[in-house]
Amino acid sequence: MNALDEVKKALRKVNPGLDDGKIVPGALLKEDLDVDSLDLVEVAMALEDIYSLTLDEDEMDGIKTVGDIVALIEARLKVKSA
């Protein structure tokens, strides 16, 4: 399961008109993708369901880019599998 692909799916789910080509690791969620805080909560919930993990609000506060989400998911998966 590729974290970036799952993040892309989750972002498209909350924002169906989102151009897939814009969803790259360096894309800023708010400025480039028009993802607001409510959208980010929905993305987090979708990813929690996919990966069977819990993302804390404190962890999500520092999220600014698509890559930040991917890095958080990958870090949590490493902890989960350890």
Question: Could you give a quick summary of the protein structure above?
Answer:
This protein is an all-alpha fold and 82 residues long.
In words, what does this structure look like?
This protein is mainly α. It has a single domain (3-81), classed as ACP-like (Non-ribosomal Peptide Synthetase Peptidyl Carrier Protein, Chain A), CATH 1.10.1200.10. Helices cover 65% and strands 0% of the residues. The chain is built from five helices and no strands. Helix 1 (3-14) packs across helix 5 (66-81). The longest helix is centred in the last third of the chain and has 16 residues, at 66-81. It starts with a helix and ends with a helix.
Question: Any guess at the CATH architecture?
Answer: Orthogonal Bundle
Order of helices and strands: HHHHH
Helicity range of the residues? 55-70%
- CATH C-level: Mainly Alpha
The overall pLDDT, averaged over residues, is 93
Strand content bin: under 5%
The tally of beta strands, per DSSP, is 0
Structural class: mainly alpha
Unreliable segments (pLDDT under 50, ≥5 consecutive)?
A: none
CATH superfamily: ACP-like
User: What number of structural domains do the residues give?
Assistant: 1
How would you sum up the global shape? globular
